[in-house]
Design brief:
The chain is α/β, with parallel strands linked by helices. 38% of the residues lie in helices and 15% in strands. It has two domains: 95 residues, Orthogonal Bundle (Arc Repressor Mutant, subunit A), CATH 1.10.10.10; 63 residues, Ferric-uptake regulator, C-terminal dimerisarion domain (Dna Ligase, domain 1), CATH 3.30.1490.190. The strands form two sheets. The chain has a four-stranded mixed beta sheet with strand order 1-5-4-6, with no helix packed on it. Strands 2-3 form a two-stranded antiparallel sheet.
């Protein structure tokens, strides 16, 4: 299986009483906005699968599946979904990707800068460190973002060292 920029190893969702569409509808109502048909299409498409994606991939996926949503609507809706706490924005080495935030456990990431694979993981020590550091500084942490960048095992195995500098 070859890696693509959107390939990821993901965590399972949590069981929540309210779905992402209902949560987004509530968010929009508070702002005096409506959940339009294109926004509903986007929510359904985004939450049909758990994967990391960028805006261009989303536009392409929508076109491939025959769903018509303008590029401008995609960008505006992604911004709103992040603001609503439904999606999380991750700024990687060379692009910005989105992932489900609502309904998924707190987690961290490893990002292969060669093939683009994103791996999700949880680590209690990282969470405890966050809490200790926040407490030490009189800070109340609501979350964190931790992304380890480097090369995945597959890319390391595929690239045999040819020069001395490659061994470093």
């Amino acid at each position: 299986m070859s890696s693509s920029p959107s390939e990821s190893i993901s965590l399972p969702p949590l069981n929540l009483p309210q779905g992402p569409e209902d949560k987004f509808r509530e968010f929009l109502e508070i702002r005096g906005e409506k959940l339009t048909a294109p926004r509903r299409t986007l929510i359904a498409h985004i939450f049909a699968h758990h994967k990391h994606f960028d805006a261009d991939e989303l536009v392409s996926d929508l076109q491939t599946s025959g769903q018509r949503v303008s590029r401008a609507t995609v960008y505006r809706t992604l911004r709103l979904l992040v603001e609503a706490g439904i999606l999380r924005e991750l700024r990687l080495t060379n692009r910005t990707v989105y992932e489900h935030d609502y309904g998924y456990p707190s987690h961290d990431h490893m990002h292969c800068t060669e093939c683009g694979t994103i791996l999700e993981f949880t680590n209690e020590e990282i969470r405890q460190l966050r809490e200790r550091m926040a407490s030490l500084h009189g800070f109340r942490a609501s979350g964190h973002r931790f992304i380890i960048t480097g090369k995945c095992g597959k890319c390391l195995r595929a690239r045999s060292p040819r020069r001395r500098l490659d061994l470093i």
